[in-house]
Design a protein that fits this description.
This protein is an all-alpha fold. Helices cover about 80% and strands about 0% of the residues.
């Protein structure tokens, strides 16, 4: 766990986090768009709608992060499986935070989703740097 915190403290990773966040906004934007459409046009509850929308957003984020944020040269069978393990944990963390904030604390569903997004963003960046893409701090930023 100390390596995870050190990841956030290095200048190299701060730049990479900027790109991770910026490019991740595309997948996250898709996640939110699908979430809002499902909640507003169907009888699907927010905690179920976020399961569908989160999955679509993660798929988009994998390809953007592999190619642009991390410029990975690892085989897809290695990074994709790890990325989706991180995503599955992130998925349950996301659903849990939405459930807790919306059902438990009675927050507006988008406020709960914003909170979940922030938590999953920091957590997944650290794990993806250290484990999925095995980023070395001294390497150059890809963009």
């Amino acid at each position: 766990m100390p390596q995870l915190f050190a990841t956030f403290l290095s200048n190299h990773h701060a730049k990479r986090f900027f790109w991770y966040t910026l490019l991740g906004g595309i997948g996250t934007g898709t996640h939110y768009l699908i979430l809002v459409l499902l909640v507003s046009t169907t009888s699907l509850l927010p905690k179920f709608a976020t399961m569908i929308s989160f999955t679509v957003g993660v798929s988009i984020n994998y390809f953007l992060n592999y190619r642009y944020t991390f410029k990975s040269t690892h085989a897809h069978h290695e990074t994709l499986s790890k990325f989706f393990v991180v995503a599955i944990v992130g998925f349950f963390l996301n659903v849990g935070v939405v459930w807790l904030t919306v059902d438990g604390l009675q927050w507006y569903y988008l406020l709960g989703q914003f909170t979940a997004t922030a938590i999953v963003l920091f957590w997944s960046f650290g794990i993806n740097c250290v484990w999925t893409f095995k980023v070395k701090p001294q390497s150059e930023h890809p963009l």
